[in-house]
Amino acid sequence: MATFMRERRADGRVRETQSTSPGRAPRRRGRFTDRHFATLLTLPALLTVAAVTLVPILIGIGYSFTNYNTTTPSQVRFVGFDNYRNLFADPDLPRVLMTTFLFVVLMIGAETVLGLGLALLLERPMRGLAAYRVLYTMPLLTAGVVVAISWRYLLNGNFGWFNYLLGLLGIPGIDWLGSSSTALIGVVLSDMWVGVPLMAILLLAGLIGLDPELPEAAATDGASPWQIFRRVTLPGLAPVLTIAVIFRTVDAFRKFELIQLETTGGPGISTKILNLYIYQQGFGYGRLGYASAMSIFLVVLMVLALSVVFLVGRRLR
Amino acid sequence: MPDRRVLATVALTVTALLGAACSSGTDSASSEALKAGTGFLDGGVLDGKPYDGEEIGVWTLATATWSKYQNEMSSEFESLTGITVKFNDIPEAGWTDKVRLAQVARDSSYDVWEGDVAFKGEYDGRSAIEPLDPYVTSSVASPTDFLSDFPAGNVDLCTLDGKMVCVPEWSSGPMLYYNKQLLADAGFSEPPKTFDEFVEIAKATKTDEIAGVCETGSAAQNLTWDVYVMSQYFLKYSDKEPPRGVFLGSDWEPQFETAEALEFGRVYQDLLLNYGPEGIANYGYVECTRDFQQGKVAMWLDNDLYVGQVLDPANSQVADQVGFAQIPCPPVNPNHCMPAIGKGWFVNPNSEKKGPAWEYIKWVTSKDATTEMVQRGNFYGGAIRQSALSSVSSELPEDLATALAYQKDHLNPNSFPPIPELVQLVIGVSDTFSKIIAGADVQDEFAALNAKYTQTLQEGGHLK
């Protein structure tokens, strides 16, 4: 890198020399470098992102230390850690956390297994493959609200299609969304309609990227199909699988419109996950301070869950 | 140093200008609101259309029968006044959230809204109410007899601390709809005369295809109303001021752990779980209306807003079999067992078009408009004016007229305490009874609800 140096000679004159020695160019005060220019160009985007993410997060953290309530907004005051203490004394919270855990596990488990199966099926060359791939991506084009309302009617205990089809098989109808013992399963089923194709697309991309010679070599060495899948395919797919599960895990924690429109968290609180509970506390009861503290708690839970996913993904490789 | 006289002149001029600006601001706001004429109540037309070309935003509840009529009729208002009405029909599930956030944010994008009169205390707590006494009493903005045609109970619905805060839009009370044929098949020729008989008939009429009773079971669909109606037959009414409702004692103490409340909870759970329709946890008034119209429900205790739908032969298979009745008040609550609910038209205090907003309210609550709404769909709740109800009373089935008269004579116009914390109390009831419908233990849930009520009322300064 060429650098310029100035030195004052004994006679007082300033000499400027060019040096080709390696090293950083001396910083020139007041010089507007390319780096400064790049920073300046990204500043509007950074400020916008900060405004719509960082600022609300900071405000939410601030609210979590107040008793802010929308029914009496003028009476807001600082309450320290009271909201966090009340969180752990909330009698409904243990049940809500269990429901959240069950929902996430069921949703991720079912969608990963079925999505992987679908991806493996569609990776093989077959007639009409392009058409099948288009068909199974169609649920992804449907708005979440439409999915929720449609499945609410499909699973209706009195006139839903599900029970009608079960009836044709001689199986008694189930009150899917009206019974606290089956409502969560009904909600998971609804989500799988979109979640399985989504997983399949992500995993199919991973499968296509794998080296085809490895399973061939394993087969030549006498490995069974299960051994090939377990020892060759799955480790190779682990990075993509981890990313896919991370996306779906975050989505599971954030799930709102599906449950709100299908069951509103009922019957009772059998489908009330933490996200919905926060919404009810904040916008139903108006207790925004308390809801903010609960939101911080939700973020902590999500970080823990994602850490587990990362660890498992690393072990798979 | 400038001449003192110059300084004084400048100071006086500035002061005068500031004072003129402030007062003209106030004067222009009040004169803006009051400059319109009084033509509507007798079907007249505003002189000169003072608000011609203006547009106002009106927030109403979607899927409500009356909203449909108001939308359909608004072209008449527009042609009379030149004011365009832009309706925003908001689904019930999101209504409370949207209104609350708009009020907290001092949203000025809407000018008129139909608010739940039970929550007027909450609206007041957020300074979201425009006092309407100046509008009603102004000889410029309103005729002198503007309120004379309203029954006193209806005006009370819109009164808070002696001030008028809205104009009644509709009011409603309980109504027992029953299927005469289904009751006769079970050996009952008359509707129930006590709540015990109500339970007995529900049990006797229940079959695999028929529900003995239908009630709202979904927390998202105003479950609290049905709970409140039934609770009147178990809990004592407190006539203290401000009103407490039946869930609170005279000193604001919650009543959920009393023997009467626990009995009510158990009867309610038994009734809905064992004698209601399958999947009642997801039932609202839409589902109950549908099932009743299809002849699948023996009795439906709700409010009187659905009379038109069950009598409509185009949609109701039981139009010629439906009976109307009231379960008479019990000894524990002999005079006020008919809770009232209703909506009122409120002016948004942040609106910049209060004058046009008031014109719309006067029109939509006028004798002509309310009479037309009542006649369009047998929407008797819209008969907030005596004259509107009189226009259709001769057409009412006799048992309906008797049931409505009993309701009005035993009305509880302030079913809920008009305090800012009301929504928390209502949601608490909704949540608890939703769990009870799902099979939770009544005693445990009522104990938890009692604790929540106590905390809420203490934080609000009502309970020591």
Biggest sheet of chain A, in brief?
A: 2 strands, antiparallel
Question: Roughly how many Å apart are the termini of chain B?
Answer: 64 Å
Helix share bin of chain B: 40-55%
- The number of domains of chain B is 2
How would you name the CATH homologous superfamily of chain A?
A: MetI-like
The CATH H-level superfamily of the largest domain in chain B is Periplasmic binding protein-like II
- The total of helices of chain A stands at 12
Which strand order does the major sheet of chain B show? 2-1-3-12-6
CATH topology of the largest domain in chain B, what is it called?
Answer: D-Maltodextrin-Binding Protein, domain 2
Task: Kindly report the CATH topology of chain A.
Answer: MetI-like fold
Overall number of strands of chain B: 13
Count the helices of chain B. How many?
A: 18
What's the average pLDDT of chain B? 84
In sequence order, what are the helices and strands of chain A, one letter per element? EEHHHHHHHHHHHH
Strand content of chain B: 5-15%
Low-confidence parts of chain B: 19-31
**CATH class term of the largest domain in chain B:** Alpha Beta
Fold and architecture overview:
Chain A is mainly alpha-helical. Chain A has a single domain (91-316), classed as MetI-like fold. Helix content of chain A is 65%, strand content 4%. In chain A, strands 1-2 form a two-stranded antiparallel sheet. In chain A, strand 1 and strand 2 form a beta hairpin. The radius of gyration of chain A is 28 Å and the shape is flat. Chain B has 2 domains: 40-172 and 341-384, D-Maltodextrin-Binding Protein, domain 2 (3-Layer(aba) Sandwich), CATH 3.40.190; 174-339 and 408-459, 3-Layer(aba) Sandwich (D-Maltodextrin-Binding Protein, domain 2), CATH 3.40.190. Chain B is built from 18 helices and 13 strands. In chain B, the strands form 4 sheets. Chain B has a 5-stranded mixed sheet. A 4-stranded mixed sheet of chain B has the order 8-9-7-10. Chain B has a two-stranded antiparallel sheet with strand order 4-5. In chain B, helix 1 (4-34) runs parallel beside helix 13 (354-364), helix 14 (367-377) runs parallel beside helix 15 (386-393) and helix 17 (422-437) runs antiparallel to helix 18. The longest helix of chain B has 31 residues, at 4-34. The N and C termini of chain B lie far apart (64 Å). The chains are: A mainly alpha (317), B alpha/beta (464). Chains A and B meet through helix 11 of A and helix 3 and helix 17 of B.
